[in-house]
Amino acid sequence: MTKKFAVIGAGHGGKAMAAHLALMGFKVSLYNRTASHVEVIKKRGGIELDGAEGVPHGFGKLERVTSTISEAIKNVNVIMVVLPSSAHAEVAAAMAPHLKNGQIVVLHPGRTCGALEFSKVIRDGGCKADVTIAEAETFIYAARSDGPAAARIFRIKEAIPLAALPATRTQLALDAINEAYPQFIDGVNVLNTSLNNMGAIFHPALTLLNAGWIEATHGDYQFYIDGVTPSVARMLEVLDRERVTVASALGIRARTALEWLKLAYDTTGEDLHEAIHNQPGYYGIKAPPTLNHRYLFEDIPMSLVPIASLGMRYGVSVRGMESIIRIGSIIHRTDYWRRGRTVEKLGLEQWSVSELTRFVQEGVIE
Fold first, then answer.
1. Which residue of 74, 119, 136, 237 shows the fewest CB atoms closer than 10 Å?
2. Rounded to whole angstroms, how far apart are CA atoms 49 and 353?
């Protein structure tokens, strides 16, 4: 029996994933909340996929294209959520009444505490179905939309940690997607995938500390190579140290930024400044053209705020993170603490470390 997937979100990544799954022979439903955004895909009945060597090329025929969430997830085995993490709570609330026993929801990626938030929102929304929520540590594709019904995949990552909530269900989630995506590996638990979120460290600080340059040039400079000066690198190192310390307070050995650069790109250096400049892949990457960018409006509330909030709850000094959150809030004239995934919003504020660990490992609420 052919496995059925629903892909939630028809942006760059969602279109690429839907087309790729279809070309691999799976039945795929594609959902986007704005019907006009997928109108051409619906008329054509699928998406044209192109890309790098080893990526399937051709027309991915979709079983269903819809802007109705209940229709999108009806009778599917696996629901792939490919949306900005700032939309996770909204889509979870919309899905809650329609989820069925045995369905698996995978967040691509969860950013920080995505699975914890998604699980709480569907429970608060009255979902009684036995559903497994999982999150990927990062997005599997480097992809772009190539037109209203076309997508291009530049690269497929080789090893992506994934964890389910609770961790006892991780193998179930891996088995469900293995035929399509053998690249996913056991990510231990959702605190591990959440706290190894490198975007939280690199994106907001690097954007804000170069705010003048971004506004003056509209991003016409090399984001990492020109933007990571020795002083900026020192700030990134402080944020990274805080993240690793928060993880340690929760009993987790998180990868440092230097370890991640070595693992992901085989790049080394005496410090973060040197290692980033030794990474050939960073050369040529331009900065965001504007400060109204997901590196701020997504990565601050959905990545940095939950790490800082966990740190404050469990006694870790996170002054560096607090400063970046505050600067971002001032520049965007908003309160990212209020909008973000705090321990209070996630319902974790009363839990001890052992209670939180037991919940993410076994699903037990004491």
1. 74
2. 45
Residue with tokens 């460290």: 201
- Catalytic one of 203, 220, 271, 293: 203
In CATH terms, the fold of domain 196-362 is N-(1-d-carboxylethyl)-l-norvaline Dehydrogenase; domain 2 (1.10.1040)
Only one residue has tokens 């310390």, namely 245
- The answer to whether 207 touches 296, Cβ cutoff 8 Å, is yes
Percent of the chain with pLDDT over 70: 99
10 Å Cβ neighbour count for 147?
Answer: 11
- Are β-strands 132-136 and 104-107 bridged in parallel, bridged antiparallel, or unpaired? parallel
Rounded Cα gap, residues 344 and 130, in angstroms: 25
Nearest Cα to 244, choosing from 229, 254, 232, 258?
254
Dihedral-angle region of residue 42 (phi above 0 means left; psi in -120 to 50 means alpha; beta otherwise): alpha
Kindly give the parts of the chain with pLDDT less than 70: 1, 366
- In the chain, count H helices and then E strands: 19, 12
Tokens of 73: 């997830």
Element (H, E) at 141: strand 141-147
Amino acid at 116: L
Q: Compute the CA torsion angle 187, 189, 191, 194 (nearest 10 deg).
A: 30
CA distances from 6 to 72, 131, 351 (A): 6, 15, 34
Find all residues with CB under 8 Å of 1, minimum gap 6, and list them.
Answer: none
pLDDT tens-digit profile of 107-128? Answer: 999 999 999 999 999 999 999 9
320 and 235 in contact (C-beta within 8 Å)? yes
> Cβ(70)–Cβ(100) under 8 Å?
no
299 has catalytic annotation: yes
- The ranges of the chain annotated as CATH 3.40.50.720 are 4-194
